[in-house]
Amino acid sequence: MSKPPLVEVEDLTVRFKGARDVYAVNGVSFTLDEGEVLTILGESGSGKSVTLKTLLRLLPENRTDIGGKVRVGGEDVLAMQGRKLADHRGGTVSMIFQDPMLALDPVYTIGEQIAEAVIRHEKVSSKAAMARALEMLERVRIPSAARRLKAYPHEMSGGMRQRAMIALALACKPKLLLADEPTTALDATVQIQILLLLRELQQEFGMSVIFVTHDIGVAVEVSDRIAVMYAGAFVETGTTREIIREAKHPYTHGLLAANLVGAKPGQRLDAIPGAPPALETRPTSCAFAPRCKHAMDICRAKLPPIRRWHDRRWVSCVLAAEEHASA
Amino acid sequence: MAATAEQLQALARIEKSPGYWQTVGRRLMRDPVAVGAGIIILILLSLAIFAPWIAPHDPYHGRMLGRLSPIGTPGHPLGTDELGRDMLSRLIYGGRLSLFMGITPVFIAFFVGSAIGVAAGYIGGTFNSIVMRTLDVLFAFPSVLLAIALSGALGAGIVNGLIALTVVFIPPIARIAESVTTSVRKLEYVEAARASGANAFTVVRVHVLGNVLGPIFVYATSLISVSMILAAGLSFLGLGVRPPEPEWGLMLNTLRNAIYVQPWLAALPGVMIFLTSISFNLLSDGLRSAMDIKT
Amino acid sequence: MTASPILQVDGLVKHFPIKGGLFGKRQVVRAVDGVTFDVAAGETLGIVGESGCGKSTTARLLVQLIEPDTGQITFNGKLLGRDLSLRELRRHVQMVFQDSYASLNPRLTMEDAIAFGPQVHGVPEGKARQLARDLLDRVGLDPQRFAGRYPHELSGGQRQRVNIARALAFEPEVIVLDEAVSALDKSVEAQVLNLLVDLRQERKLTYVFISHDLNVVRFISDRVMVMYLGEVAEIGPVEDIYERPGHPYTQALLAAMPSMDPDQRTEKVPLSGDPPNPINPPSGCRFHTRCAHAFARCGQVAPPPIELNPGHRAACHLLREEPKAA
Ligand SMILES: Nc1ncnc2c1ncn2[C@@H]1O[C@H](COP(=O)(O)OP(=O)(O)OP(=O)(O)O)[C@@H](O)[C@H]1O
Ligand SMILES: Nc1ncnc2c1ncn2[C@@H]1O[C@H](COP(=O)(O)OP(=O)(O)OP(=O)(O)O)[C@@H](O)[C@H]1O
Ligand code: SF4
Ligand SMILES: [Mg+2]
Ligand SMILES: [Mg+2]
């Protein structure tokens, strides 16, 4: 451990204020090294996107309460202002989304958009920027890249558009790429193309990636490590192998069963009952307890203890802690 | 199947959620602007309805000696008009015709236009094209011109004015109705209802109307102000209501010569028209956002 | 599997006309282009394929929400339009859609929504309501709490249960499920799949189950049909399709499934490019533009379906070259 981690998040909390408060993120901590790929795995509403957006400070300032520490490359993200924030967004860190139409501007060609981003962050001539745009399109394996440079987003197919968005995100060689379900809306045949592309580019550029998805299969394809998120908190983290093979948290087990890992065709599944909580208050006990078949009184009384093997492998569950105590 | 006591009890225990309109009503009540506009409209309506009991003077009877007395004259708090008739009374009575001319054409056009639009939207295809293109021809004329042309052709008078305005409002309402119906028709619950084997009439009655009349109604309320202004315009041109009937548009016309003598007095009917139409517009806006209930 | 087919679909074709450009000639989307298959009573037929290959159009043709240009549908040996009226078919074949919210009328309570169908078919109101409440109970929603609610007061999973209850209200024999669990969260999806499995057993239902999720299709189906650009590429028993896929497209589709094993991640892209446009589908074998094994004949002649095993057919020229069980 010579180099400090690229990303350090400590006890991050995000609350949306409004007619009804939403406690979207409740105490998330993790670190990410350079060149590592972490997947945040969780269901709809668990707080995955909000966590990512905090890293880019994309949340509406006046309606959110953000607590905790967020550092990227040693810099305090929550304290950034003006020029520094602008360099951070799109320079050090960039993001790709589920819907490329949100990231791409419909009135400019793909080439213009990439060149513009390069000029904004690197102050190079527009010719050099256009050359970089072409290089990027080639690197995301867009066929006949020179021609596509002059194409508008709506003239491209879904998969091509996703590639163009990736090219745009990587144009300024970010140290950290945030990927918010970039393949969810795609066909499986196109999804795998994009996943493999991201994997290759990650190696080529040596960047770190935080990938958000609800699909375990996708997580396995891209990540080194997985953090399972439920009700705004990580409940279990570990390497991809540890999560798939030695899951400890009942929710992770439930997710694996729901993804039909080892399911017998036509037989009932070991499904998690109920639905996730509404998060109108901050959880004061295990948020999963109402749906957990192992839940005990203590689960409903206080926040579960954390069983920690080491920094990157831990579970927040009474069961795992007890197993540890009795061993 | 005779219901047992137990079944009846079970029935009674069913939790009833507030219905859609109840929810809309509650949301509307929380919107201060809409509530304010609604109160103003209610006041204007009651003034019009109870005019004979409220108005201090006879709106037709003037005193030639007391012509154009200013606002604040004792006995005539809002002054008198060019024939010495009490302004307050005439404004109160004027609301009757003005509101009537504003609301009735929209009301009739709401039914006719909705029927045309819903039928065109639900049936679709060639029928839709024929109906909508025909309406487009009507709609191509600016509404003011169309109203003037129609009532010019029909001749002056309240009934003819009403007919002209109704015809003016049918195409826009039918258009909205058609587009809302077309989008609702594509929704899966309508498909599911069709897949249940129900005939078109039942599907429209149960599943389409409830979901399209709301938006059409909102649009129609926003037309009331247009209708009032057009009606006033017709009267102003001498095509709608005829003197000595009190009507705000007509009053505006007859007082226009007094504009240099008593500008405030002359503006009063205009203020009423403005107040009423803006209230209807604000109410319609509030209704629109109250009806936008998200999941 | 010896059961007689409950549903026979023969040569279904549906082309949607679209507006060409200013001078463009009239074009059509060949959404479904000659689809033939059977569904046996009590079995579940899964339908898979990329977006735009005509799965939903096939489903909507099955319940006659749209009329085919040509082709026949036979239910229980009765030809639709000759021996069987549309209304009759609709009682026996019901559909559940993907979007649980758009599938429910926002102005009707859950009880009204479910009771609507039976009332249409002449069940008196009181009885229909009782039925609705029993069905709510059956799909796992307490009638006391849910009968009077409106769609926006339910979660996605709960709404989809109501949609299933509504389909059941007709006592149908066949239910067509078009991506019925795709929009749900994984944990909720598993609950709904369990419900479908239970109901199938309890009521001897036949499902036509459309999904882009190959894991789910494998889990629930007895047989699987793979579609490509409006045509049937391959159809057969689920294990045959997943273990011994005959058509190169099926092979690619299966290879595109994310691996669940961190030690065996996918290394090679199984299929490049996006699915082509159904407006101008490629000549010959429609898959030849993306097929790794394509040869001259593929671009010229459309391959006929070839029987690989009993009940397992695939339409590919390669299969003719080398006879089965080599
Ligand atoms: N701008 C916002 N204002 C208020 N609440 C918000 C806002 N953004 C997100 N939320 C709430 O925060 C919670 C977490 O949302 P988030 O978008 O992070 O979920 P997610 O895990 O990304 O889910 P999905 O898989 O559906 O994208 C949700 O309850 C959501 O409703
Ligand atoms: N009403 C319509 N008018 C014109 N084209 C249509 C219509 N319905 C479907 N299509 C087209 O027909 C083709 C097949 O559509 P369909 O919805 O059956 O695909 P699908 O296999 O269900 O795809 P998905 O997985 O995206 O749901 C598509 O190209 C679609 O754009
Ligand atoms: S802490 Fe308790 S309730 Fe929470 S997951 Fe573990 S066993 Fe279940
Ligand atoms: Mg999200
Ligand atoms: Mg579909």
Keywords:
heterotrimer; A: 327 residues; alpha/beta; Rossmann fold; eight-stranded mixed beta sheet; four-stranded antiparallel beta sheet; globular; C: 326 residues; 12 helices; 33% helix; binds adenosine-5'-triphosphate; binds iron/sulfur cluster; binds magnesium ion
Give an overview in words.
The complex is a heterotrimer of chains A (327), B (295) and C (326). By secondary structure, chain A is an alpha/beta fold. Chain A has a domain at 7-104 and 175-277: P-loop containing nucleotide triphosphate hydrolases (Rossmann fold, 3-Layer(aba) Sandwich), CATH 3.40.50. In chain A, 36% of the residues lie in helices and 23% in strands. In chain A, the strands form 2 sheets. Chain A has an 8-stranded mixed sheet, sandwiched between helices. Chain A starts with 6 loop residues before the first strand and ends with a helix. The relative contact order of chain A is 0.14. The radius of gyration of chain B is 24 Å and the shape is elongated. Chain B has one domain (27-55, 83-291): MetI-like (MetI-like fold, Orthogonal Bundle). The longest helix of chain B is centred in the middle third of the chain and has 37 residues, at 87-123. In chain B, α5 packs parallel to α12, α9 (188-195) packs across α10 (200-236) and α11 (248-254) packs antiparallel against α12 (263-291). Chain B starts with a helix and ends with a helix. Chain C has an 8-stranded mixed sheet with strand order 6-7-8-3-9-10-12-11, sandwiched between helices. A 4-stranded antiparallel sheet of chain C has the order 2-1-4-5. The radius of gyration of chain C is 21 Å and the shape is globular. The mean pLDDT of chain C is 89. Bound molecules: adenosine-5'-triphosphate (2 copies), iron/sulfur cluster and magnesium ion (2 copies). One adenosine-5'-triphosphate (ATP) binds next to β2 and α1 of chain A.
